[in-house]
Amino acid sequence: MWQTPLARDLLLQYYGTSAPQTPDAVLTWLRRNLPDAERQIEPPRLRCASPDHGARRLTFRLHQQTGDGEEGGDWLIIMREESDQTVIQAMSLSFKLTAREAEVLYWVVKGKINRDIGDILGTSPMTVKKHLERVFAKLGVETRTAAAGMAMSRIRLLHPPFQN
C-alpha cells in the first residue's frame, strides 16, 4: 500500500494507524463495495466523523484510474478532510452575517429545528429565533425555507462538494 504523507497523517489522527495497517471501517467499506467496483461502478463515499475532531470529518472515495488494458486501471482511495467550519465562515462573509448567525443558518440548511439548533449551539430556541429574524432581514427573505435555499445556492458555488 502506498500513501502520501498527508494520508498517513490523516489515518494516524482519525484511526491511530497507518500503512500497512488499514482501519477496520475502511476495510469493511471496501469489502461491501467491491462488487460494484469490479463492475466499474464508483461506490458511495465513506464518512468518518469523530467527536475528537469537532466539525471536521474524513471522507473516503474510490476513484478508478484509466488503464491501458481491457480491465481498466487501478482503484485509488481518495481521502479528504472536510470541515463544517469553512462552510460557516464562507456563509458569514458571503452574506455579511455574524459568526453565530452563520452557524444558525448552517444548521437550518442541515434541516434542524430551532430547539435542535439551540441544543447544538448551547442557546435557547428563542435565541435561535432572534438570530433567524436577523438572518432573514439580511438575506431579504421571510421564511427559513427561502433562507436555506439561498444559502444552499451560495454554498454550492463556494464549496461544490458540500453535502446537506
Largest sheet report: 3 strands, antiparallel
- Helix vs. strand class: alpha+beta
Please state the overall shape, judged from the principal axes of the Cα atoms: elongated
Strand percentage, roughly? 5-15%
Spatially, the strands of the biggest sheet line up as: 1-2-3
The N- and C-terminal alpha carbons lie at a distance of: 33 Å
Helix content: 40-55%
Overall pLDDT: 83
In total, how many beta strands? 3
Instruction: Spell the H/E element sequence.
Output: HHEEEHHHHH
| Helical stretch tally | 7
Low-confidence stretches: none
Radius of gyration from CA coordinates:
20 Å
Would you mind describing this structure in some detail?
By secondary structure, the chain is an alpha+beta fold. It is 53% helix and 13% strand. It contains 7 helices and 3 strands. It has helices at residues 5-15, 24-38, 84-95, 99-109, 114-121, 125-139, 144-158; strands at 46-49, 56-64, 75-83. It has a 3-stranded antiparallel β-sheet. It is elongated, with a radius of gyration of 20 Å.
Summary, kept brief:
With 164 residues, this protein is α+β, with helices and mostly antiparallel strands.
Key phrases:
single chain, 164 residues, alpha+beta, three-stranded antiparallel sheet, 3 strands, 13% strand
Question: How does the SSE layout of this entry go?
Answer:
Elements: H1 5-15, H2 24-38, E1 46-49, E2 56-64, E3 75-83, H3 84-95, H4 99-109, H5 114-121, H6 125-139, H7 144-158
Helix pairs in contact: 3-4, 3-7, 4-6, 4-7, 5-6
